Amino acid sequence: MNAYTLSQAFDLVATWESLAALAVGLVAGVIGGAIPGMSATMAVAITLPFTFALQPITGILLLLGVYKGGIFGGSIPAILIKTPGTPASSATTLDGYPMAEKGEAGRALTMALYASCIADLLSNLALILAAGWLASFALSFGPPEFFTLILFSLTIIAGVSGDSLLKGLASAVLGLLLATVGLDLVYGTDRFTFGEPNLMGGLNFIAVLVGLFALPEVFAYVYAPREIHGRVRSVTGTAASRADVIRCLPTILRGSLIGVVMGSIPGIGAAPSAFLSYSEARRTSKNKANFGKGEIEGVAASESGNNGVAGATLIPLLALGVPGDVITAIIIGAFMVHGLQPGPLLFATNGSLVYAIFMGLVLSSGLLLCIGWFATRAFRHIADLPKSIVMPAVLVLSIFGVYAVNNTTFDLGVMFLMGGVGYGMMLLGVPAAPFLIAFILGPLLEDSFRQAMLMSGSSPEIFFRSPITWVFWGLTVLSLVFLLTGLRRKPA
Amino acid sequence: MMRPTHDRALGLGIAGFSAALIFWAVPGYVVSPEGGSLVLRPDFWPTILGWLLLGAGLAVALQGAVASRAAPDPAAAAADPADPADAELAAAARGGLWRLAGLLVLLIGIAFLAERFGLVWASVIGFWALVAMVRAERPWLGLVVGVVLPLLLYAFFAKFAGVPIPQGVYVRLP
Predict the structure, then answer these.
(1) Residues of chain B with pLDDT under 70
(2) What is the number of structural domains in chain A?
(3) Which of A232, A296, A458, B148 has the highest Cβ tally under 10 A?
(4) Residue A120's closest CA among A320, A305, A376, A276?
(5) Is the per-residue pLDDT at A414 higher than 90?
(6) Which of A224, A403, A491 sits opposite B63 (nearest CB)?
(7) CB of A199 within 8 A of CB of A182?
(8) Which of A191, A223, A429 is opposite residue B99, by nearest beta carbon?
(9) Least CB–CB distance from B60: residue in A166, A218, A395
(10) What is the average pLDDT across A116-120?
(11) What distance lies between CA A350 and its chain's CA centroid?
């Protein structure tokens, strides 16, 4: 990093387009997260096609805004109608709703907002500190190291994404298999194209992800259409005071740290982080007995835990090119459509873009504070949006977005088919996250494998050539052992 | 909620799919040149994935079988067709399946008619059909949003992003 790169990065981010994209993304994310039945993932997936028309930095900031807004937005219905807008906000209902029942909704919401913004800022700082260092370390990685790294990431993502390791593994293998469709990169021969020219370039990534993460909710709603008519608590009472914030600050800092650590490990995500932060806060609090009955520290703990993940999940994405969760897997799409490949080389070839993203992320924490404040006041209107309108709107947004990528109705067919597959997976308890992440990482995994084989003259010893590969093999075995031990304790 | 019997069926389904992949799809639909290194051939990776999937499918089936033997499904045993609550649930499930079938027809229609009618009008019809299918509480709102949203999306993609949105042959937009 040098002064010139930083000034270029500043020029990229200090434009009205970038700032507007960030603000619009945050607003869209907060609304998406706050509507029960939608999720941050769905909001990011639907937004992705809109980034094609934008500059890379603008599009990426738009998506990051949606991501961050979505995670905070989920806390609003969690507090006001006891229905978490996103799974990450489930822990917030435990104390947020009892506070709203006691007429302290304003205090709970402002604490959720402060905790979210502080944790988000700290997570962004962790990203800035760690990503560059990790990327420079990863520059020494060759194909065998990348192969073992991706294998480890897929194992852990498959293991922790659902209730069953085996279903997660099957889902990941199906994703890898789908990634093989198209022309073989070495020989140029057909693989599963069935004579269809549209399949020669492989399946459109956007059609697959929108189908997997937006349409199953539409299918589920059509099967059982019902509105969520929770009693919306009004935003009464005073805001959280400075004394509240000071009292909760150690909890927020601990929750942020938990979020950063858990976010930087692929596959874990925001919901487990929020629950871990909550249980740690309850264990160490002086007001232990009040937890679950409307304790403001509980709200601070869960919100700092889930928002602490947001920046940290970008560490493996930007430094190694490995998405840590579904949302970062979708964000990788925004890079790919602009011809950018996240990973260690991105820092060398597009350093100004990376640092512009960092600057935008820090800025987003401040913007979230303003936008979140207004969103808490406007929630009554957001909650009033009927699902019978939201779900058809999701369908139409998906149709236009997916069509716009390649201008072909073939992609619409792929999206609808993947929607059916995603709905089936939802019903059968097969997690979709390993499927999508494996689909994205599949080509990289196979390329690394084949390059390593070419380098070694087809000798598998190359996968044990360096201490780094040994570390990743060790971590893979260790995670499998932990996951299998858990499996024996808790059958599917 | 997933039951062990579902897991058993799912596992067997995955195993069947992977067997078809290994013995039919890979030999038939992956073109591999003769000779050369085995591990670099285009069919090597799909074959390995097929075997992995077969193993995972059989393991899921086995796990489901063990779980169902250890704890028989109480819900299946308790279902009583004469019970009004169970009958109501069954009726709701039938209604849901009909709506899903309707959605399937709608999606196929949109995919096939988008070029002929135009993406905007196909989306308007799709939106209204979906609103009708779920019997929206505020259908007038659905009618309005169903027109405004596709038009706004058309304006964004066609005018701002320069994407050639299909106009169809009947009603063309500026």
Answers:
(1) 1-4, 72-86
(2) 1
(3) A296
(4) A305
(5) yes
(6) A491
(7) yes
(8) A223
(9) A166
(10) 92
(11) 23
Question: pLDDT band for position A491 (50/70/90)?
Answer: very low
Q: What is the CA radius of gyration of chain A?
A: 22
pLDDT band for position A260 (cuts 50, 70, 90): very high
DSSP B41: S
In a 10 Å sphere around its CB, with 0-12 CB exposed, 13-18 middle and 19+ buried, how is residue B69 labelled?
Answer: exposed
Give the torsion sign (CA, A351, A58, A379, A91). negative
d(CA A427, CA A38): 17
The nearest CA of chain B is from the CA of A96 a distance in Å of 28
CA–CA dist A372, B88 (Å, integer): 43
Classify A36 as helix, strand or coil.
strand
Say if the Cβ atoms of B149 and A187 lie within 8 Å: no
> pLDDT, tens digit, for every residue of A128-176?
999 888 888 888 888 999 999 988 888 888 776 767 888 889 999 999 9
pLDDT tens-place string over residues A202-249: 898 889 988 998 899 899 999 988 765 556 566 666 777 888 889 999
Amino acid A194 reads F
What's the pLDDT tens digit per position in B54-72? 999 999 999 888 888 777 6
Residue B35 has φ and ψ, to the nearest 5°, of 75, -175
Q: Which residue of B has its CA nearest to A429?
A: B2
Mean pLDDT (chain A, rounded): 86
Judge residue A269's burial from the number of C-beta atoms within 10 Å of its C-beta, 0-12 exposed, 13-18 middle, 19 or more buried.
buried
Max mean pLDDT among A331-335, A443-447, B162-166 falls in A443-447
Q: Which two tokens mark B78?
A: 């308790």
Q: Per DSSP, what are the bridge partners of residue A182?
A: A191
- In DSSP notation, B138-171 reads -HHHHHHHHHHHHHHHHIIIIIIS-------SSS
**Separation of alpha carbons B59 and A411, rounded Å:** 34
CA distance A421 to chain B (A): 13
**Which alpha helices (H) appear in chain B, and where do they start and end?**
4-20, 26-29, 44-70, 74-78, 84-117, 119-133, 139-154
- Whether the Cβ atoms of residue A79 and residue A86 lie closer than 8 Å to each other: no
The domain segmentation of chain B, as residue ranges, is 4-78, 84-160
Domain enclosing residue A338, as ranges: 3-489
The token pair at A316 is: 């493996």
CB contact under 8 A, B119 and A193: no
CB atoms A412 and B64 under 8 Å:
no
Find the helix or strand (DSSP H, E) in which A182 lies: strand A182-183
ipTM of the complex: 0.89
